[in-house]
């Protein structure tokens, strides 16, 4: 690791946390733009059928199933004077800026088949670049600090950057793209944000550090079995449930926002989308400031149990105001509730992720933050891809006509009602699942301290003996019998 570059920023204060968290400006902003505008770009601007357009991100997810586990393994196997994760954050940040712009570049053809092939290739390219930066980034914090509370603080600062990125990504495009049929405006937005995303990654590279440790000695062909073995952890499986349900719910909101405002409320030309996204994301930032101290004083699980009901009630409240000509003020107030509730989920997710490498180490005796973060990153991209895919399918099922949209003609009344149901009911169902997963998640401050203590025992740095109560807690957290913990063979049990 290059201490001359990162050493002066090393610490546990706000400055160090902000520089660590800045890369999430890219992580939080990129998918807001993609979820909000990519399907619109394909269907309205290019006239591609909704079901076909929605299939493009799903093809990208199949590709992610290959690249994400491999990148996690590559990260853990890499040795670099900069620190392997920081090196890939720098490389991935530069490549991502280029790939993001290519995603919104049009080709001189009206052939739907050629467009479909082109955007599949571009989406896979973007997904690969996202993997190169975000897999190492998601595994960086466990190798920076050990403290449960400091990890929580850094994760909260990371989520603030995520929300800032989401606010800018949610508002700037709506202000610039006045005409959803104008392809050149999408490209201008992409160029601006591509530069910002690359800059954010460079700042995080400069302002972070990694503990010196030996690379994991695994073969590249073992990437998939290694990655699959992460799911033997009970806590990780429940965490993935929290991650997918929480993020998919918000992806449906951002992905359907234009359709909801334009085709249901009939207020796109009145600036309703800018208002809705502004309120939604600003309230999310306020929610971060509210839930960060709550999480610090209670647990990462508690914020989910508080925020999910707020989010659910606010979402269902929109049912009363989802029709053409509905007053915008109640819609905005309820959107603020959705944003505040979502802040609780975001505040918790990445704070929890930082602890999953410790649970995995207790099970396998191997430090594999890259593998763990690789599967978490894959889950994030699955949430985005599934959301866009399902939106495309559901829009087709409710009779959405891309040709009418491309010509600027309103959709049928039954289609408008269907769009409202997609925008409201699907996120509500996902938030219910989020609440269930949050309720059964087994780790608070108490359990985490016991896990770290047990790792110390296994390493030989703690001479105490585990009590029966501690053994029961460790078994509940890991899903393994106490005597079966700390075995390298647990990495490969998935194949037995």
From TrEMBL:
Keywords of the record: Membrane, Transmembrane, Transmembrane helix
Segments passing through the bilayer: 21-42, 87-104, 116-138, 159-177, 189-209, 238-260, 272-292, 304-326, 332-357, 378-399, 419-443
Molecular function terms, GO-annotated: symporter activity
Pfam families: MFS_2 (PF13347)
InterPro entries, sorted: MFS_2, MFS_trans_sf
This protein's GO CC annotations: plasma membrane
A GO biological-process term: carbohydrate transport
Domain of life where this protein originates: Bacteria
Name recorded for this polypeptide: MFS transporter
Natural source organism: Mogibacterium diversum
Classification lineage: Bacteria, Bacillati, Bacillota, Clostridia, Peptostreptococcales
